[in-house]
Amino acid sequence: METQGFLFNHLLTSKTTYGEVELVALLQQRNNQAFTYLYDNYSGALYGIINQIVPDRESANDVLQEVFINIWRKIGTYDLSKGRLFTWMLNIARNASIDKIRSKAWQNDLKNQSIPEDVNNLESHLIRPNMDNLGFRKIVGRLREEQRTLIELSYFQGYTHEEIAKGLSIPLGTVKTRIRTALLQLRSMMDQQ
Amino acid sequence: MNIKEYILSGIVESYVLGLASEEERVEFEKLCLQYPDLIDARNSFEISLERQVLEEAPEAPAFAKQKFIDFIKQPETNSETNVVSIQKSIAKGSGFRWLAAASIIFVIISAGLAYKFYNEAVSLKSELQTAKESQARLDNRLRILEDQQKVINDPKISVVNLTGMPKAPAASASIYWDSTSSNVWLLVKNLPQLPDTKQYQLWALIDGKPKDLGLFDLPNGDHKIMIKMNNTQKADAFAITIENRGNKGGPNLDELQTMGKIKL
């Protein structure tokens, strides 16, 4: 308990550069204060990415809730050597959001709004007003159209490379190469900022 | 493998953003163990991405935080298995849905039982091990006490009580000596613990000269266990001194603890 208190104080006093290792250790001990800290510092960013995938405000709130509960449940499986904590949380948020928009209930809602759900109409999924000005999507929006479409479908809609190849009638190898090129382009734009 | 080319292929970004296939992911993680440059590249993209996403992040709704705090404060509700994710893996066709549901339930129950039995087996194995160790300790102790009993009851044995000397008035020990077989046993009744550098030494005094009967440490724990010492055929008296560990010289009589004369 002594060390825990020490670690936590250390964490609180170094707000700008906290030790990720210490934070993870506290989280894995299911320390409530550490989870509160996590929420305060990262809920906004995760909510942002959820909103970029799940446009409906109410569903996005549900997903955010689910994401933090999943982080709480799965923190024991987080492996520091495989990447940063934020990346891990971001992927949980993205996966939960995609599960949401792929869920039966969500698809039924879409039908009511008469938007087709089959992969062959991928292009119609791209109508997403008012979402292009946020964080990660903002920079994706600066890609040229062909690349933007591929990132939109793979990252924000969660389609597999195979599904995209079929939907857009492009060979699988080409889809893969183009997505990789688009990602490299994204990165260089991010680094230039 | 040319790791520079691999790093610049877009795999790093693809991996971090969760777009890599299972196969690519496994390969990437394996290569990370081998090439620190790859880890650096991953880390640097992760930091860029983090900065990008955190920038202009919206405010999460306040009520959601309260809900989460309430959740983590009730640990008993948290341990339930998350069943939600299973729903989406149920076959989309309605014909086999019941079969899919039944097999999933079967798998969950089997997995649950297997896990439970595995845990029980592990726990039983460890309990058995503990019991065996405890049994061995008790057997050993019983054997020692039986041997001790034999010595005490042996009519050929004479008992010499060693009493405290001015240096250590409370010190006390007994010698069980079989003058026929020359066997000597020592029973420590009260001697203080020594620092690691020191040891006790038992001496027999024969015609005013000391004979070494062996160095000894106090037995572990407070059990009164007899220690088998070196044999001596003759002795006028027994004495215990404190010596440096592994003493090869004669007795340090300034540190004489207990002594007892043979009553003939």
Short description:
With 193 residues, chain A is mostly helical. Chain A contains ten helices and no strands. In chain A, helix 3 crosses helix 4 and helix 8 (145-156) packs across helix 10.
Describe this structure in words.
The complex is a heterodimer of chains A (193) and B (264). By secondary structure, chain A is mostly helical. Chain A has two domains: 103 residues, RNA polymerase sigma factor, region 2, helix turn helix motif (Rna Polymerase Sigma Factor, Chain: A, Orthogonal Bundle), CATH 1.10.1740; 75 residues, Winged helix-like DNA-binding domain superfamily/Winged helix DNA-binding domain (Arc Repressor Mutant, subunit A, Orthogonal Bundle), CATH 1.10.10. About 12% of the residues of chain A have low confidence. By secondary structure, chain B is of the alpha+beta class. In chain B, strand 1 and strand 2 form a beta hairpin. In chain B, helix 3 crosses helix 4. The interface between A and B is large, with 55 and 47 residues.
Main beta sheet of chain A:
none
Share of residues in strands of chain B: 15-25%
CATH architecture name of the largest domain in chain A? Orthogonal Bundle
Number of strands of chain A: 0
Topology of helices and strands:
The complex is a heterodimer of chains A (193) and B (264).
Chain A: H1 2-13, H2 20-28, H3 32-53, H4 57-74, H5 85-102, H6 104-112, H7 135-140, H8 145-156, H9 161-168, H10 172-192
Chain B: H1 3-7, H2 11-16, H3 22-34, H4 36-54, H5 62-72, H6 75-78, H7 84-87, H8 97-153, E1 157-164, E2 172-178, E3 184-190, E4 198-206, E5 209-216, E6 226-229, E7 237-244, E8 256-261
Antiparallel strand pairs in B: 1-2, 1-8, 2-3, 3-6, 4-5, 4-7, 7-8
Helix pairs in contact in B: 3-4
